[in-house]
Amino acid sequence: MKNIVSLLILSSIFLASCEKNIDLYPQSNITSGDFFKNASDVQIALNGSYNALRDPLLEEWKLTELRSDNTIMWSSASKSAPNRDLSDLDMFIPSTSHTAVYNYWIANYFNIRNVNNILNSLNINYDPTVGKLNAGSTTVVITDAQKKAVSSEAAFIRAYHYFNLVRLFGGVMVIHEPLDPFEAIKINRSTVDNTYKLIIADLTYAIENGSTLKQASIPVANLGKVDAWAAKALLAKVYLTLNRKTDAALLLNDIITNSGYGLVTAYADVFSTTNEMNKEVMFAIRYKAGGIGQGSPFPNLFASELSGVAIINGDGAGQNAPSVELSNAYSVLTGAVDLRKAVSIGTYGAEYNNLYPKKMVAQVSLKGDGENDWIVIRYADVLLMLAEAQGNTAASLALMNQTRARAGLPALTATTVSTTEIFENELAKERRLEFAFENIRWFDLLRFKTTMPSQDAVATIKANFSAMWTGHYSKYPTPLTLATIQSYVTDQKLLLPIPQREIDNNTKIVIAQNPGY
Amino acid sequence: MMPMLLCTLLVNAQKTSVTGKVIDKETGAPLSGVTILFEKNKKAITTKNDGTFSFTINTPDKNVTFTYVGYLAQKMTLGEETNYVISMVQDNTLQSEVVVIGYGTQKKSSLTGAISKFKNENLDEAPVSRIDQALQGKIAGLTIQNTSSEAGAAPKISIRGISSLYAGASPLIVVDGLPIADGLSFLNPADIESIEVLKDAASAAIYGSRGASGVIIVTTKKGSSSKTKYNFKYSSGQKKAYQRYDIMTTKEYSNMLFNEVALRATDPGFPAKDNIVGDADRAGYIIENALLGGKSTDWQSETLRPGGFKNIQLSASGGSNNVRFFVSGGYQNDEGMQNKSNYEKFNIRTRVDVDFSSKVKLSVNINPSYAKKVSPSQNFTNFWRAPTWLPVYHNALTAAFVNTNPQYAGIKAGDFAHPRHFSNLKYTGIMPDGTTWTSPTKGASASGSAQQNAYSDIMRSDITSNDYRLQSSVDLSIELAKGLIFKTVASSLMYYTNGLSFYEREYNSEGSLNRGVYTNNRYVDLLSENTLNYTKQTKKSNINVFAGFTSQTTKIQNQQTTGIDFPSDKIRTLNSASQIEKSGTTGTNNQIGLISYLGRVNYAYDDKYLISASYRTDGSSYFAQGSKWGQFPSISGGWVVSKEKLLSKLYWLSNLKLRQSYGVSGNNRIVDFAFLDLLYGANYNYGSGTGVTAPGLISSDDYLSNPNITWESTRQNNFGVDLALFSNKVSITFDIYKSVTDRLLLQQSAMAFTGVPQFWNNLGKLQNKGFEFEVTTKNIQKKDFIWTTSANISQTRNKILELGTEAFLLNQGERTEVYRNKVGDPLVTFYGFKTDGVWLSQDQINNSGLKSALPSIFAPGGLKVVDMNKDGVIDNNDRTDLGNPYPDFNWGVTNTFKFKSIDFSFLLQGVHGGKLINGDPNYNESRRIIRTYNQNRWISPLNPGDGKTPYSTNGFNWMLTDYVIEDASYYALREVNLGYTLPSASIKKLKVNSMRLYFSAQNLFFITAANYRGVNPEGRFSNGPYSSVLIDGYQRGAFPIPQTFTAGIDINF
User: Which residue has better confidence, B42 or B1035?
Assistant: First the structure.
């Protein structure tokens, strides 16, 4: 009996200590619940949000450059599923469950979630009725200056994502707070107007609270962080898109006068991996080579297919291939050699004319580990946006002549640019050549409809199909005629479909698909 | 065991009246209710409570039979005597069999739950490296699917279907009391004594939170008190692919294309502009026809080989009354059918049982093992889909040809040939139609593939992993009082896995750096069990009470380091790497804890009325405070009807037992810390130049946590019948069950605009019902000839009862094929478009009046999608149920024959009714070169083929339609074993006790459904999206079924 008693006592001691056995927490991860404690934590989270800016870029060129008249899916004869997916986008027949469309959608919203967490931890809330961000008090230990810096950058990032989404999909779900999945199924698409309302509120907040230091005075450690100037440039583009030209011009003039940003002398130096964050770069999504998991995949994706080591180490995938028509567009009309062509477009294989977007492709030592930053807004864009906002004036021509001069092209004069239509043609072309492969052309085509009525996206793309028919589109294997492929492009198809998964997944409310899909 | 009859003859001179008593031979206890059958007039009487009987007989009625449940029947001829003592012997093969149950053992005759026992007789003779692969078709309700037949690959195992959405169907594996998730992978098949499968929830409920998908208990061998016995077994054999893909050579393919062109030229309905053979096809033809001299490359033969199999076992067992031991050592080598695929295993097991006294007993079990796995870096798919014009190595002609491209000027004969070498070149050559073709000035490419020749990739890589394990346990039991035993068990599983995947320079792509990935994983699992067991037996009743406490802690540490740019491919240690790659370098630590209180009462009255109840409560670290604890009760009862007086006279009825059980079991197997949102590293770089890296953290882009996440629980009702007839010549077990799992643990799809694709939820209800039927018959039992048959068939039907507030979920697989989970339907149904052959012509399309915005839906020669809702528009609303992946029946039949010293057995096994989605035809190469996709295909309106086979490049995406859905049914001659035991006279001089030679073969035939187009209907994809049970039934590039032949020898001395 004694034995039993002592056993029971022993066991009970053992049991008491065992409760600890099931109260375990992760050893290799921090949990989000108790993370936001002080300024450093918020900064670390913000660094993570900058990192997550990279994910949408993986798909963005497919939805912008590829659909525009700039690039094509190179192997027209290929029927492989990934290539078919790309040519479907190129030809404006993406299915509603297209992988790239879905991946882009969720990648943007993923980072919107991250940014919402940061802003929420700082108690900075969007009031949709007045369209304004309000800052409340926070439990996070942070100075006012730190709070302004971090929150302005976060607000910019949110606006950047929504601006891309609204232009590609139309009105989207406007999420500005951490969202749980049970709430999510009650939320439908917002109108385009309400989406822009948040974008403008975010950018206004970023302008009011962001750094206004001149480019040359930015502390080295802060290069690459969003400042008020970047927010102004982005807001100007928003205004331009909404055809609020005066509002845009006001911001752009401010940047030109006060920001200290400017053109670098040589076009090639803008994109050089040894000259990153030069004075032209107002905002870039940065990459860093060196086997640290921060490298850019684009050099290997964009170098010509099957080029082995001829262009860069680790072979290329031949994606986002420049169209011959774009290549030809450099220096036509003017007669002069456009210095940008040799920087922008590379040729692989003397005989076969495989083109690749050279300015995005710097040598790598390790496959998929590129150094090239992805420039989102640069000073040249500010100049040309102002020209677009001002319209056909001598001042506008002077702005355009700044980038033209750098490209080695003769200046435009009022004589040659005799009509508004010529002006608009010249400006559209200037932007196309200046920003080729920077995911800008597609949004330009969409915007020109309102800012420069002579430029019609559908007509431009149809004309491009026609120009590229013999050399490219006619080679697609399915019975395809020029008329058929041109009929694929309609005003409706300028928007992408809302991912089918999103519509399928909500059995509570009906999410309207964009018309035409 | 030989039936024995012992009569003690007492002389008493009365002629017509006979009296006597029936006792158990071993215990001497009187047996009541024993049936005494008079053969002549078929009358029967039974013995009284004290085992006595009396009757009178007529002289001719001298032959009587004694039968009793759980005992061997005895026949006797009455002699002159009038008083007999009949000693009956328990039938060890059947009712008195002891079955291992959770935390104990029980007589099979007292079982109230649904438990199948499989005794290891020749499992270890099967030429497989894993014990689970050998169990296929042998146990009703246990489904084993060899989703990959590569060496050492784990099959998919389920008991009674799928009861859990996330954790899937994998049962809990318990090895000698210790739950080990991959317990079936490392055990030496020869060490296994028996395998018990706990199928119903009442049996599994004692395992609480982990029992919902059933439990497989493995018991290893132990020694017995006897003179030391030795056993030596050696076997060796070979396996080869049962079936390969039927691939067209480039020549055959080109001929087909040119014939098609000729046919189309005569068809005005086909546009002349499209009637061409592409440059790539022409270029490929020139290479094969001219440069390779018409010799096509058989890529399947380049990688497949006859894989050797070797198995060596040596064991010794014996001991004295107080100390018994079992020691074994084993070595297995399983060579895969693909090159660079190998699985090698060494096992040692030592088990010692010590009786310190009659009350204190100790047992120690130690099992170290080592396994080495070598895997090929390229899967089989990349071989069979390679074009036959591509040589493995360049010959002089191909080298000279590719040298014309300055980039490949350095290539020599004997170098590996890659598809890209043959791109952008100028081709000239004779076509199958006799014309001469010259490529356009730009040049042509025979292939646009950037992939390398898969053989070169395999040869330039070595993927190995080493698994070092030590499983050990010590248990001490003390009899505290009469019938009360305290037992404490400490067991542990420790393993250490290290691996090196080394990729040489030029692996995968030109100019790629060499790379070494070093993995180190440590796993320590400690379990402490403390139990009290009280047994009391009275004359009529038998009670067993059991209570216990267990605590289990698991610590897991995983590390991976990736080094790149080694100066030489030969020196592969990390110190010579020039750089560590951050993105390939990771480390995680984790711990898991479980504590449990459990108890059970078994009560039997008169061995006739049986009742059992159990209760367990588990606390798990997988859940947050407040949700940690789960309760798992069960109750079950049995009634041995055949022991009732009324039925005991039925001489043909040996046993009839009815069982009913109800239990609750659970499932906690989700990812670690699903109740917490974890942050992951996401660094970024600021600053001038290339920037300086700043640390960043970001939330999971995989799933959202749910702080309220908790157990899912399965409640199951089981009704069973055990029936034995004709002196146990026929025994039947039948079970029927119905279970409902609720609060399902599920990674539910979240709206993507939350930023995260899924979240953890306890959602919905899932029902499973089905039956299992097992029958064993002793067809012939002669001295020289024994024939027994054992057959089983089972069925499981699952149905979603509720999905929270959702009516259905839609999930996509890798090629956007859609899987629907809909309330009222089976768990997964394939969801897509129905087709009705192919569009024969543009006219037919125009006349249909159908409209659609879907891409390429109307194309002559393309699939004709059916407008299901007949609204004239083909859109996503026309998608419908296209079948499901769950079989209607699984069955297996084993026949065993013994003729003198020859033994022979074979197993037929089959699965009927399930469907699969074949992903092969998604790929261009497969459609092009697998013959089945091209035979009788549409060519032009006047040459529509069979009207069912689309032209491979025309029309709608096959993956969204029923065109890729195929019947996965099959039946196969799984096993054949033939043995010959040498006559004892001839081996006496060798000083061995017995010697047996055996031969076994697997998959001598394997018959698949008529519309199945792959090579292995069991093959399934289980990576990526397919790791979810909500997306099931997808196959792509299945690995061939192995056909094996083995010969072996088994010596006891």
Answer: B1035
Q: Please, are residues B975 and B941 in contact by the beta-carbon 8 Å criterion?
A: no
Angle, helix A379-390 to helix A228-241, in steps of 10 degrees: 40
B232 touches B313 (CB < 8 A): yes
Residue B375: C-alpha distances to residues B461, B513, B621, B782, B915 (Å): 10, 21, 35, 50, 29
% of chain B residues with pLDDT over 70:
97
Interface check B549 vs A, CB under 8 A: yes
- Per CB-CB distance under 8 Å, the chain A contacts of B509 are 308, 314-315, 367
Q: Which residues contact A461 (CB under 8 A, 6 or more apart)?
A: A67, A68, A69, A92, A445, A489
Q: What is the pLDDT of residue A437?
A: 96
In 3D, which of B1011, B1027, B1039, B1003 has the Cα closest to residue B136? B1003
Residues 292-331 of B with CB under 8 A from A: none
Specify the pairing of strand B342-355 against strand B360-375.
antiparallel
Whether residue B171 contacts residue B213, with contact meaning beta carbons closer than 8 Å, is answered with yes
At A82 the pLDDT is 80
CA distance B1027 to B548: 35
Q: Of B625, B756, B954, which has the smallest distance from its Cβ to A110's Cβ?
A: B756
DSSP state letter for B57: -
Percent composition of chain A: helix, strand, coil (DSSP 3-state, to 5): 50, 5, 40
Distances in whole angstroms, Cα of residue B749 to Cα of each of B316, B739, B755, B1027 = 55, 25, 11, 15
Of B271, B509, B620, the CB nearest to A479: B271
Kindly give the interhelix angle for A192-209 and A228-241, rounded to the nearest 10 degrees: 160
Closest CA to B550 of B487, B640, B468, B634: B487
As given in the structure block, the two tokens for residue B248 are 């067209």
Q: Which of A31, A307, A315 sits opposite B678 (nearest CB)?
A: A31
B184, B156 in Cβ contact below 8 A? no
The terminus-to-terminus CA distance of chain A in angstroms comes to: 81
Token pair belonging to B486: 């305290």
Comparing C-alpha atoms, which of B317, B361, B329, B92 is closest to residue B226? B317
Cβ-Cβ contacts under 8 Å, B527 against chain A: none
Provide, as residue numbers in chain B, all residues whose Cβ is less than 8 Å from the Cβ of A55. 701
| Helices of type H across A122-227 | 144-169, 181-184, 192-209
- B407 in A contact zone (CB under 8 Å): yes
pLDDT in tens, A348-400: 875 456 899 999 999 998 888 999 999 999 999 999 999 999 999 999 999 99
Average pLDDT, chain A: 90
CB–CB of B587 and A223 under 8 A? no
pLDDT, position B10:
38
What is the C-alpha separation between B418 and B406, in angstroms, rounded? 16
Question: How many whole angstroms separate alpha carbon A388 and alpha carbon A251?
Answer: 13
CB atoms within 10 A of CB B566: 23
Q: Write down the pTM of the prediction.
A: 0.81
Return the number of other C-beta atoms located less than 10 Å from residue B1016's C-beta: 25
d(Cα B423, Cα B800) in Å, to the nearest integer? 52
Model confidence over B804-843: pLDDT tens digits? 777 888 888 888 888 998 999 998 999 999 999 999 988 8
| C-alpha–C-alpha distance, residues B343 and B321, integer Å | 40
* B934-953 residues touching A, CB cutoff 8 A: 953
Under an 8 A CB cutoff, do A32 and B587 touch? no
- Measure the CA–CA gap between B829 and B845, rounded to whole angstroms: 30
CB contact at 8 A, A111 and A171: no
